[in-house]
Structures are given as C-alpha cells and as structure tokens.
DNA sequence: TATTAATTGATTGTACACAATTAAAACTTA
DNA sequence: TAAGTTTTAATTGTGTACAATCAATTAATA
C-alpha cells in the first residue's frame, strides 16, 4: 500500500534553520551562565540589568528605565518592588508629576557595584569568543534590536 | 566642597556593551514579531516551537522534546497540557517504560502546518537582513548555544 | 475655563522559565 | 533477587513577560 504523498517539507519550518530559536535558546543559556555569579549579589538576571542602568544613572523614572531595558511597567513594577524590599532602591512619586514614579539607588544598591566588577570578565571567559568577534556579533544583534524596536 | 572621587566606571558594566542584553532584548522582540502571525494559529511562541519539532518528528517523549528545545518538564508539562486541551496533540505514558510520556501530534496539529507555511518568510521580511548574512549570524549564535549547552 | 486627549504607572490575568522536591519505574550490582 | 542508584515526569514555588484595562494626572484646545 503506497503512502499518501505528503507535501514536500518546508525547510524554513525546520527548527535548526530558525535564527529565532538560536536567539531564544541563547538568551536563556546566557541567563543560566550569569546565575551562579549573580547569586553572590542575591539578584536575578533582570534585576542585574536594572542595576546596570541605575549604576550609570542613579535616578530614573519607571518609564525611562523601561525605555532603556525595553520592558513595560507590568514587568518592572513587581520587579522593582522586590528590589525596594531589599533596600537596593527607593520608589517615590515625582511631586511635579504625580503620574511618574522615580526610582533611586540606595547606598546599598550603589555598593553592589563593587561586588559586580569581575562579572563581565567571568562571563566573557565562559563565552570563549575573541573580543573582536564578540564586538561584531553584538553590533549585528544591536542592529536587529534597533530594527525591531 | 570637592566630590568624593568615585572609582573609575567600569565600561564592561555598561548596558550598551553587553552582548547578553542584546540577545535578551532581541529574543523578546522576535517573540513580539511572531505574535501577530501566530495569533492566526492561536498558539504562543514557545508552543510554535513545539509544533516545529513535532511537524518534523510527529512523536517524541517529553524528554526528547526538552532536549531539542532545551526546556525542562517544569516548562513543558503545563505547556503541553494546554496544547492537549486544544486537541493539537495527545500525551500518553509509554507502555514499555511507564516513566516516559509520549507526545503525538493529532491530525488537527499536523493540519496547522499548512497554515504556518508563510510565517518564516513573513518574519524574514521584517528582519530585513540578506539570507546569507542571516545564515552567518545564525551559525555564530548556534556556536555559542553549543558552547553553553 | 471646560472638555477632550494623551501620558504614565499600577493592576489583573495568562503563560512561560526554572530550581527544588517528589514519586514512580527501570536499571545495576552485590 | 534485594537494595541502592539512576532516569523520567510531575509538582510546587518564585520570578519574570506582556496584553488589556484602569485610574490619575497633565496637556491641549475649543
């Protein structure tokens, strides 16, 4: 009995051919790479990204933070509340515009930066890619990010 | 009054210099790019990835599915249950090894593949990157995935 | 100025993602 | 073969993500 001929499989629908899957998988693997290093700081990876931004700027509104991290308030509000509970930052309404919530790093939050100094190198070490190659890759990815933003 | 001299800022701790952030942001942006296309199939992006695998293999254990997608049962079990409720697949214990749960595509699940044919092209269109460049980028990302796996 | 429109966060609800634990079954080996 | 180990999913609990909605406030304009 002959098999009913299937339509030719679409190679574009194969998992291995998907750029999207590589990005998705890599993103989760990178988070896992950071995790043991971030355990020392007792922060999660998204919280670490918030700290990176605040170490640069110290004070930002939720809106501005969201613009930099490409995250909305539905994600940031509970995350920031957890960080506030741990005394790494404060959240308060802007008196000049009561709609806006301003996030400010505490001394403790600023102090964490010292403990984070070695993290980028330790991660780069595990990625085992030459810095120039990494830079090229990062530029390409940033182009795509800009394109889709 | 002079400012207390801060330690020189570590450029490696700047958000813009982080490969990790580009990957993280791009992954979420890609998911958002897929979302309106996947709405027609009424699936989420991770569910779409499960379908991609099953369209290739039809029947796999949860374990095998997890190996291909790099996801564990804590993620897959509830996701597969939702897909089972929608009749796209069935879940049943392997009689030869009762520890194993075998996932099989239903006719309805297989039928979805036809509706998905145009999706890769439509996404590629939005990425506006020449196919050869995309292939190079994908290869680099896959290398990193392999490295971290 | 009164009304409308736009901005900004918070809230709610759904769906991942994963660590840690549990439980059942299968395998190993003394 | 009995005891201990390994394998495999499920469960539980925490923490993102994000769409949709709501509420408060500000800005714009008729």
The average pLDDT score of chain A comes to 90
Into which percent range does the helicity of residues of chain A fall?
A: 55-70%
- Indicate the CATH topology of the domain at 43-135 in chain A: Arc Repressor Mutant, subunit A
The CATH C-level class name of the domain at 43-135 in chain A: Mainly Alpha
CATH superfamily of the domain at 43-135 in chain A: Winged helix-like DNA-binding domain superfamily/Winged helix DNA-binding domain
The helix tally of chain A amounts to 7
Radius of gyration of chain A: 21 Å
- Shape call of chain A: globular
Biggest interface between protein chains, with counts per chain?
A: A-B, 58 and 58 residues
Tell me the major beta sheet of chain A. 3 strands, antiparallel
State the end-to-end CA separation of chain A: 53 Å
- What is the CATH architecture assignment of the domain at 43-135 in chain A? Orthogonal Bundle
Number of strands of chain A: 3
Query: Low-confidence runs of chain A (pLDDT<50, min 5 residues)?
Result: none
Strand content of chain A: 5-15%
Oligomeric organization of the protein chains: homodimer
Please list the strands of the largest sheet of chain A in the order they lie side by side. 1-3-2
Q: Would you write up a description of this structure?
A:
The structure is a homodimer of 149-residue chains. Chain A is α+β, with helices and mostly antiparallel strands and 149 residues long. Chain A has a domain at 43-135: Winged helix-like DNA-binding domain superfamily/Winged helix DNA-binding domain (Arc Repressor Mutant, subunit A). Chain A has 7 helices and 3 strands; from the N terminus they run H-H-E-H-H-E-E-H-H-H. Chain A has a 3-stranded antiparallel sheet. In chain A, a hairpin with a 2-residue loop joins strand 2 and strand 3 (97-105). Chain A starts with 18 loop residues before the first helix and ends with a helix. The model of chain A has no long low-confidence stretch (mean pLDDT 90). The first copy, chain A, binds a DNA duplex (30 and 30 nucleotides) through residues 28, 31-32, 35, 44-47, 61-63, 71-79, 82, 93, 97-101.
